[in-house]
Every structure is written in structure tokens, then in C-alpha cells.
Q: What sequence folds into this?
């Protein structure tokens, strides 16, 4: 495999022999070099474009280095390697068939209208818990958005232990004495490449929207917080993001393990005596060891790339002041049941446990998540603590910052999903955002081909494309989507969209209070340790009143 990767690197560096442009093989002369792609309908497609050097060998766990410009015309008709990740669980509805993986994976893909000129750019960051996924997943095909006038870019970035390992010896290598966040630095490097090159594809580098779902939505928030990314995007879309506490580089805070300590523990479990031994390990073996021993990839508060917890960034108004479109799905946890604790046997046990954990907030908690249907309440508790609170917090903070902000709740179901108890499950909005209902993973509930689905898909595509174009989501033959504003407006995306106000009254206030008290006390993370998994709630303090 190493020989194959080495040969692919040589090919990437030299490019291919010059080839003429044809109707089916468009050629673009970008600052990085000339590319030959393909045409499908009125869309030009360029795949597997390197934006950074392969982070292999001594470059493993280094900040991304810009890819060298190539001299000859480069073939861009095939996707690049998928970044190294654990093998997919075959029973998962999110599992794709295994695809070729390599550390040489820092590539991006472009879909552009054939006659694009200064078109808005939609920069997509895939989800997968920072440990799986790729920009070449079929759900993210950009053709339908390109048909609405957007230049779409999807990217790969380093995942898992290869993308987020912190270690004292790694920190010692850099002048800033920090480590971790390589996956985030990859995203910033890809943005930098787009800003330099996208005009050649007809895109406008001054009108870039960063967008992502789940870990991609999480990434959007951290790009908004990272100073190195400032000025390289004009708008943001965060789908099912989660504003949880993050590990700090050398300090144990909010109940987490310091990132460097986690790296030392991983090295010991992998049998690596030092950094050189870690770098010499096979990437697949290292990834498997990390996944099987509980290494949890996440962004690191290192004081340099990320200066403080994301909640503090937004509270202090230090985030990028750009319009945002954010939201979540009503059935998020129906496909992620591992994020919630086991369901208790009866209502009395449930209520007793909640009262013992939430103290003076237990009445407010039980009003939102009552004991008369324990399982549904538990699903809603984890959904709201992770995704609902985050989405509303994002639009509130951006509204306070004086920029247009738009909130949605995706509450659309269809027979195959509802029959499996997966109404509006996590990521189920993606086929509508990209118009790719015919390209879902094998175990994904099949989306029917009906007028309702077609109309809803067209509306969602229109809303997202309009937001990327102008900062205001609008759709043909669909309701206006009002900004959040004083009315606390949002769009309910059901069988048809509806503009509404005051999403889930009391939900945001309760979760904000819980997080505020945990932050004030310290030593308690805010993530999925809620409901029956919550530690006793700290008492109210003045700053949380």
C-alpha cells in the first residue's frame, strides 16, 4: 500500500500530459495549475484536486503545507483517496461501501455552472464525528446546487487520531508549542486554496459560504472562532451542530482530560515509545487502535488556533460576524441512540431520577420532557441539549452581533423512515439540501419519488442556494423565511415549509441555564450527559440568573 501511495504522490506532483478542452472535458487554468475535468449537463466537475501536500511520514501531524503548483494539465476526473478512518459498521444507515483510503487525502472537488462568473461559492464540510466520511460521499454531489448558480466545493480533511492527536513532543516541534487541530488547519488550508483559485472556476472568492452537517456543522462554528480563517468566508450554514465543551491542551477543565495527556495515553496503548514510533506506525493500525481504545477526536483549545471554549467565543462576540443559517432535526437521536442513556422501566423511576438531578429546575425539565412517555422524552432531552440549544444559540448570538440569522427545524418524515421509527433522523435533511435522494447509503430509508418529495427538495435547494447567494433564504412557491429577530422566528420544514415563531418554548432557556451553571462551577462537561445521565445540577449563581 505504501508503494501505491508513493506512486500516487509522484503522479499528483507531476500532473498529466496536456490535453485539449472538449465539450465533455473542460479545462480550467487556475493559479495552482491547469485542470481537465468532465461535463455533466451544464455542470463542469473537477475532482481530487490537491490543496495541500500529503501529510505522510515526517509530515504526519504537521500543519498542512500548500501543494506545489503543477506544470502540466492535471486529470481531475476521479475523486481522491478517502482519509484514513475505521471500517464502517455494515448495519449503520450511514455506512458507504469501503473506498480506497490513504493519508494522501487532502483534496477537494468542484462543481461549477458551465457559464459561471463571480458565482457564490458553497464550501461543504462533511460530517462523521471527526472520524469518518469524505467530500466524495454521493450524498454531497453538488450538481443540483450548481444548477441553481452556485460553485460547490467539497473537501477532505484529516480524521480521528491522524487529524486531532495532541502530544507534548508534537507541541515541542512548533514555535507556538501547540498540537492537535490538524483537521481544522486542513479546512483552513482548503479555504485558502479556494480563495486563491476559485475565480478560475467562475466562483467569487468574496462570496464564500462555509457549510456543514453534524461534525461539519461543528467545524463551521470553529472556523467562525478561528482567527486564521477570518476574512475567507462571508456566510455560514450549520446543520445539526453541537456546542459542547472541548478539551484544552494541557489543562483538565470541565471534566475532560487534557489533550496532551490523552495523546500520551494513546501512545502507551499503541505501544509507541516516542513520537518517531507513532509516526512509523501503519495508519490503518494506528486508527484502529485509537478507535478501539476510546480515543475521542475533537478540536483542542490550544490558546493559538482556538483561544477559548466555543461558548465563550460567542458570548464575547469574538466570532466571525457573518449571516448564519442554522437548525436541527426533530428526530436527531432516533438514529443515534447510543448518545442517550438506557431507558428506565417506568415513569416513577424516571421522575424520581430527574428530580434528584435537576433540583430547582426539575419542574421546568419535566414540563418539557414529561414522564408520561419516557422514551420520547429521553430522545428529546438529548436532541435538545446537543442540537436544539446549539442551533438557537447560534442564531441568537449572531442576531445580537447585528447580522441576519435564520433558524430551522427539519420535521419531515416519509413512509420508509417513519416505519423504522426514524422520523426526521440525524442527517435526513441532506438529500433535500443536495437533491440526492437517489444516492443515499445502502441502509438509508428510501426516499419515495412523489410530488411532495420533489416539491420539498426544490424548496430546500432554493432556500440554501439563495442564502449562499444573498444571505437571505428564499424559495420559489414556498413561504418567506423570516430572520430570527425579536419575534424568534424560524422555518418548520415539514411536508411543506411553514414560517413559525418561538421554537419549543422553554427549551433554550432550560439548557442555557444548565450549561451556565456547569460553566460556573467547572469540572462538568456539557454534552450528552443530560437527563438521566446528568450529574447533580450545581446551584444557581448570580451570573446564571
A:
Amino acid at each position: 500500500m505504501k508503494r501505491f501511495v508513493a506512486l500516487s504522490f509522484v503522479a499528483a506532483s507531476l500532473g498529466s500530459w496536456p490535453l485539449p478542452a472538449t465539450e465533455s472535458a473542460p479545462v480550467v487554468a487556475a493559479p495552482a495549475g491547469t485542470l481537465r475535468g468532465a461535463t455533466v449537463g451544464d455542470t463542469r466537475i473537477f475532482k481530487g484536486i490537491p490543496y495541500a501536500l500529503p501529510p505522510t511520514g515526517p509530515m504526519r501531524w504537521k500543519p498542512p503545507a500548500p501543494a506545489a503548483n503543477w506544470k502540466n494539465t492535471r486529470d481531475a476526473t476521479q475523486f481522491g483517496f478517502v482519509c484514513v478512518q475505521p471500517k464502517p459498521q455494515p448495519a449503520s444507515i450511514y455506512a458507504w461501501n469501503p473506498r480506497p483510503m490513504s493519508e494522501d487525502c487532502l483534496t477537494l472537488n468542484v462543481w461549477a455552472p458551465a457559464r459561471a462568473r463571480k458565482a457564490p461559492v458553497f464550501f461543504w464540510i462533511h460530517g462523521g464525528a471527526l472520524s469518518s466520511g469524505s467530500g466524495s460521499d454521493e450524498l454531497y454531489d453538488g450538481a443540483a446546487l450548481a444548477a441553481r448558480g452556485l460553485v460547490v466545493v467539497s473537501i477532505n480533511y484529516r480524521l480521528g487520531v491522524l487529524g486531532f492527536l495532541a502530544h507534548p513532543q508534537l507541541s515541542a516541534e512548533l514555535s507556538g508549542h501547540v498540537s492537535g487541530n490538524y483537521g481544522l488547519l486542513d479546512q483552513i488550508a482548503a479555504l485558502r486554496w479556494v480563495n486563491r483559485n476559485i475565480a478560475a472556476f467562475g466562483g467569487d472568492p468574496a462570496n464564500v459560504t462555509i457549510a456543514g452537517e453534524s461534525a461539519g456543522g461543528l467545524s463551521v462554528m470553529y472556523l467562525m472562532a478561528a482567527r486564521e480563517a477570518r476574512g475567507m468566508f462571508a456566510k455560514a450554514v450549520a446543520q445539526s451542530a453541537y456546542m459542547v465543551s472541548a478539551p484544552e491542551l494541557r489543562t483538565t477543565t470541565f471534566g475532560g482530560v487534557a489533550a496532551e495527556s490523552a495523546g500520551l495515553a494513546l501512545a502507551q496503548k499503541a505501544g509507541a515509545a516516542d513520537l518517531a514510533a507513532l509516526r512509523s506506525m501503519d495508519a490503518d493500525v494506528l486508527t484502529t487502535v485509537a478507535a478501539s481504545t476510546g480515543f475521542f477526536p475533537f478540536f483542542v483549545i490550544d490558546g493559538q488556533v482556538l483561544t477559548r471554549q466555543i461558548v465563550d467565543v460567542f458570548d464575547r462576540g469574538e466570532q466571525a460576524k457573518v449571516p448564519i443559517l442554522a437548525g436541527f432535526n426533530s428526530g436527531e437521536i432516533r438514529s443515534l441512540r447510543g448518545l442517550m442513556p438506557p431507558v428506565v422501566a417506568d415513569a416513577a423511576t424516571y421522575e424520581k431520577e430527574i428530580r434528584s438531578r435537576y433540583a430547582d429546575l426539575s419542574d421546568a425539565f419535566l414540563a418539557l420532557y414529561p414522564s408520561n412517555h419516557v422514551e420520547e422524552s429521553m430522545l428529546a432531552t438529548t436532541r435538545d441539549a446537543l442540537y436544539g440549544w446549539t442551533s438557537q444559540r447560534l442564531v441568537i448570538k449572531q442576531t445580537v452581533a447585528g447580522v441576519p440569522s435564520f433558524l430551522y427545524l427539519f420535521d419531515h418524515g416519509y413512509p420508509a423512515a417513519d416505519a423504522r421509527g426514524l422520523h426526521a433522523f440525524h442527517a435526513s435533511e441532506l438529500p433535500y439540501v443536495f437533491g440526492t435522494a437517489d444516492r443515499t447509503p445502502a441502509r438509508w430509508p428510501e426516499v419515495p419519488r412523489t410530488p411532495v418529495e420533489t416539491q420539498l427538495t426544490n424548496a430546500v435547494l432554493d432556500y440554501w442556494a439563495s442564502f449562499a447567494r444573498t444571505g437571505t433564504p428564499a424559495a420559489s412557491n414556498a413561504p418567506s423565511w423570516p430572520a430570527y429577530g425579536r419575534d424568534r422566528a424560524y422555518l418548520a420544514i415539514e411536508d411543506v415549509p411553514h414560517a413559525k415563531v418561538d421554537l419549543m418554548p422553554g427549551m433554550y432557556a432550560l439548557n442555557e441555564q444548565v450549561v451556565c451553571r456547569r460553566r460556573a462551577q467547572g469540572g462538568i462537561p456539557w454534552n450528552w450527559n443530560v437527563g438521566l445521565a446528568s450529574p447533580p445540577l450545581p446551584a444557581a449563581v448570580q451570573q446564571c440568573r
